[in-house]
Structure to design on (358 residues):
């Protein structure tokens, strides 16, 4: 078995991934442009085939991460994954028939843990760069993230599902990730506003109460929001971000008119 | 359905945070949240595993100098909604 390694990094995150060629070769090619910043300290991620595990009946994507005391497990038939923020290491044992997409999902989970440990937040959102400013259009599944991204053309889409929020000298930056669909080559933008998507007949930008905003944001924070011990820190991190970035409910319909309202209020 | 003699307690996994007069209550196992106003937050805090639902309603009626019957109706409905969401447990 040929073992490869490759590096993955976004903003201040850095992973060094070791595993068999069959799993890593497609990811090496697809993610070659996502390299850690020089000098970043990497977490080692080891991917190990284990034929004693059952053949996976479903993708790892369907497994739900469980976290406790900073230790995250991602287990499903055919997969046994562990991520430790304390040791800065991760291990996935998987049946040899596991697919590169399963490995990709595991790396998302590792990145979520590392990003939080280093001051950032991985966030479920469609991230649009409009007139040089980053807008995070978020909401539960089915709220219209993909639709909003579609109607934002030709604006760049950092990602239509997952971005990395990272503190900057002034405010926060929104970084693209390779984990979803993108449009354009923009990789980073200053975060101008967080917009909770609500389908409605009339377009409007409505302030969210602080409590409501906090709840909505935590609910869209993958991996970490499942851990009662991490949650207080997650809430505190979002409060820090909300002190610098406004949040609204964006009532929108299936056209691009919501950008006229955003430009009028925030542009 | 809840009874007035039920003793209520917050679910052990609940995580809360006050933010500008509201209480954000996160249910990590469900990935859901509830936002409570001051009255709702008081009901949650009084649900400490020692008081019955009737005692909670009585306390609120005194604290808010409100009509007892109206408070009882509101507390019953609100407590039931928190039990249904898994935020409150019946001891």
């Amino acid at each position: 078995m040929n073992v490869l390694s490759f590096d993955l990094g976004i903003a201040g995150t850095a992973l060094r991934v070791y595993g068999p060629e069959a799993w890593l070769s497609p990811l090496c090619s697809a993610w070659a442009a996502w390299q850690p910043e020089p000098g970043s300290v990497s977490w080692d991620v080891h991917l190990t085939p284990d034929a004693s595990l059952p053949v996976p009946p479903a993708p790892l994507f369907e497994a739900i991460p469980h976290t406790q005391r900073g230790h995250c497990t991602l287990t499903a038939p055919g997969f046994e994954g562990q991520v430790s923020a304390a040791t800065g290491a991760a291990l996935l044992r998987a049946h040899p028939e596991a697919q590169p997409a399963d490995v990709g999902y595991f790396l998302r989970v590792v990145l979520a843990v590392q990003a939080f440990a280093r001051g950032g937040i991985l966030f479920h959102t469609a991230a649009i760069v409009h007139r040089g400013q980053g807008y995070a259009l978020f909401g539960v599944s089915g709220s219209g993230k993909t639709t909003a991204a579609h109607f934002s053309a030709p604006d760049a889409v950092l990602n239509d599902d997952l971005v990395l929020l990272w503190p900057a000298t002034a405010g926060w930056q929104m970084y693209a990730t390779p984990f979803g669909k993108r449009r354009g080559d923009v990789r980073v933008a200053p975060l101008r506003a967080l917009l909770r998507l609500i389908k409605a007949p009339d377009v409007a930008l409505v302030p969210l109460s602080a409590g409501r905003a906090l709840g909505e944001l935590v609910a869209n924070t993958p991996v970490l929001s499942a851990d009662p011990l991490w949650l207080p820190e997650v809430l505190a991190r979002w409060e820090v971000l909300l002190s610098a970035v406004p949040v609204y409910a964006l009532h929108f319909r299936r056209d691009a008119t919501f950008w006229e309202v955003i430009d009028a209020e925030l542009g | 359905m809840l009874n007035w003699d039920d003793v209520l307690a917050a679910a052990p996994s609940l995580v809360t945070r006050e933010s500008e007069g509201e209480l954000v209550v996160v249910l990590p196992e469900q990935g859901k949240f509830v936002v409570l106003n001051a009255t709702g937050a008081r009901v949650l805090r009084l649900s400490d595993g020692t008081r019955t639902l009737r005692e909670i309603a009585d306390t609120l009626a005194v604290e808010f100098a409100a009509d007892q019957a109206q408070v009882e109706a509101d507390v019953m409905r609100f407590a039931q909604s928190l039990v249904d969401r898994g935020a409150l447990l019946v001891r």
